[in-house]
Design brief:
The chain is α+β, with helices and mostly antiparallel strands and 116 residues long. The protein has one domain. It has a four-stranded mixed beta sheet with strand order 2-1-3-4. A hairpin with a 5-residue loop joins β1 and β2. α2 packs across α3. 29% of the residues are buried.
């Protein structure tokens, strides 16, 4: 199915809600702490990744947990909007990266970690 303007707008509206993931409060706080410490950053595929390979075990576990939750949410959004999971991921990544606070890390399209 082609990616129409209507699908894009619906997808963008859904992606705008991504910061409100139903992540447990402690996980959201842990994500913010991991970002502040420079352990994790946002990737252009809508998932988080380890910026620091020496990050503690809790940060690595957090990446796995949050990415699993995001994967489920992306699949749900794709199904409800009649589009691909990859399209949802791209829009979600753009929205999440736009809202990152100064100093947070994100990966650019060439795979290089950048600081906002």
């Amino acid at each position: 199915m082609p990616f129409s303007r209507r699908n894009f707008l619906a997808l963008a509206a859904g992606a705008a809600l991504l910061p409100m993931f139903r992540i447990a409060a402690y996980a959201a706080e842990d994500l913010e702490e991991a970002r502040r410490q420079g352990y994790v950053g946002e990737r252009p595929d809508g998932y988080i990744g380890l910026v620091d390979p020496q990050a503690p075990a809790w940060a690595k576990q957090l990446v796995d947990k949050i990415n699993a939750e995001r994967r489920t949410r992306y699949q749900d959004l794709a199904a409800s909007n009649g589009t691909s999971v990859e399209a949802v991921q791209v829009v979600a990544a753009q929205k999440i990266i736009e809202k990152l606070p100064r100093g947070a890390y994100y990966m650019d399209s060439s795979g290089v970690w950048m600081q906002k």
